[in-house]
Amino acid sequence: KMENATLKAELGRATWRFLHTMVARFPEKPTPDDRKTLETFIHLFGRLYPCGDCARHFRSLLAKYPPQTSSRNAAAGWLCFAHNVVNERLQKPVFDCNNIGDFYDCGCGDEGKKDK
Ligand code: FAD
Questions:
Q1: Are residues 39 and 65 in contact, defined by beta-carbon separation less than 8 angstroms?
Q2: 97 pLDDT exceeds 70?
Q3: Are 23 and 75 in contact (CB under 8 A)?
Q4: Of 29, 83, 93, 101, whose CB has the highest number of CB atoms within 10 Å?
Q5: Residue 77 and residue 88: Cα distance in Å, rounded?
Q6: How many helices (H) and strands (E) in the chain?
Q7: Nearest CA residue ID for atom 42, ligand 1
């Protein structure tokens, strides 16, 4: 099938939103198992993301800049950085990672729960 830039961009936006929202809820103090789970997830994501070119680029990004999983802050900062690497390659504006704090809200309504 032909490339459809609109669909490709829509998938990208939805995916970035999901990934940033996911790491915004990663534990502040992850267990070794939490850390392994996130690292494994990111690598599997790089294998399975349906845009083949995007996934290939992302895998080389992972090889150069391994995912940071020591804390929520580290994970969110790493993902923001990685997204900015993609932004630069696509000649999009770079996002200020200092502003990532409250930007991604899952709307889950269970913020009071431990470590969420
Ligand atoms: P997006 O980049 O989708 O970002 C959505 C919103 O996130 C922005 O409007 C902004 O509010 C916020 N944002 C921007 N930067 C950051 C950041 N650093 N941290 C946190 N939030 C931020 N498209 C291609 O054409 N070629 C590719 O090779 C390619 N590779 C991709 C690889 C991955 C892993 C993913 C998830 C997507 C990839 N895409 C690729 C899609 C591309 O990154 C964009 O999602 C798409 O072009 C739509 O761009 P957008 O301008 O709407 O903003």
A1: no
A2: yes
A3: yes
A4: 83
A5: 16
A6: 4, 0
A7: 12
